[in-house]
Amino acid sequence: MDSGVRFQELADAAPVLIWRVGTDGLFNWLNRTWLDFRGRSLERESGQPWGHGIHPSDIDRCRSRFKAAFGALDGFSLDYRLRRYDGEYRWMADQGRPFFLSNGTFAGYFGTCLDISDRKEAELRARTALADARRALRQRDILLGEVHHRVKNNLQVILSLLSLRTRSVADPATREELQSLARRIQAMGHVQAEIHSEADVASIVLVDFLRRLARPLAVLHGCDDIDVTVEGPGVTIEASTASIIGLIIAELISNCFCHAFPDGPGRVHVGVSGGDGGAIEIRVSDSGPGFRMADAERKGSVGLHIARSLARQGDVELTHVAGRGARWRLRLPASAAAPASA
């Protein structure tokens, strides 16, 4: 079989559109796939300039690129929309290369077009989804900022009312109860402030969060001489979990500040362990004399009641551990962990 005939058969059977232009930049041959796509005969397509049938919005860009490549005898790659026989424009990935005769004479350009409309539509959907996600994130950030602002303002109003009431109370025990309540409200404010200081509230590094929280709690209770250390791996949790944990830890540490060191300086240690797909554990201990749980329960400890209530809300296992000093263990399920930020 003649090689030219064989090439024609192979080219016509190819699943891509194949074109050729001469040195004048006009089509002089196209395969059957191209002609079927365009719905035009070889006679009608031949003699048309390269770019014929390209979408009006793409034609100037494409012809400029083609002209530059043609003048430099370089190859080119272009994406554009080509009109189909039914009037629909389909996205094509066009690859063009110069070709030469056996004696080295430049003879024109040869190229192939692959329909990439499905890929382009998928890219458009992805861009749209990304734009929607970014818009949702902006709205979330605005909402979180507004919620944080309102919570902070409301807490400040409550503190102001408590302060006014405390000044009018003569009974020392009642005054101390009101001041203790005010400190708890301030601790809540510190927890929320530290959460909202995070750039990504979906993935909060627990150790960093607790370290930042410990300092203002010490200042709040006038315990600058108490050494508070927080250690552990970079386990991450989400804001909702961090809020619960922060409030529990604030209650436990505050209890250390208030009761563990009546004779002077001391130490509070917070250790984080676990993660990596397993449960997360937090241990809180101090160097004080400790306490008997039975005594705390008999006295109806408000702090104990608050900590246990918060633990139930957050599906946290809160356990008092026997030993010297106050010792607590918090165990979070593996589901509490959040992916670390990239």
Brief account:
This protein has 342 residues and is an alpha+beta fold. The chain has 10 helices and 12 strands. The protein has a 5-stranded antiparallel β-sheet, with helices on both faces.
Structural notes for this entry:
50% of the residues lie in helices and 21% in strands. The chain has helices at 3-13, 32-38, 42-45, 56-72, 117-167, 172-196, 206-220, 239-259, 293-299, 302-313, and strands at 17-21, 27-30, 76-83, 89-100, 106-115, 204-205, 227-231, 236-237, 267-274, 280-286, 317-320, 327-332.
Low-confidence stretches: none
Structural class: alpha+beta
Spatial gap, N to C terminus = 61 Å
How many runs of DSSP E, i.e. beta strands? 12
The percentage helix is 40-55%
Beta-strand residue percentage: 15-25%
Largest sheet: 5 strands, antiparallel
Radius of gyration, taken over Cα atoms and rounded to an integer in Å: 37 Å
Mean pLDDT: 85
Strand order of the main beta sheet, please?
2-1-5-4-3
The ordered string of helix (H) and strand (E) elements is HEEHHHEEEHHEHEEHEEHHEE
H/I helix tally? 10
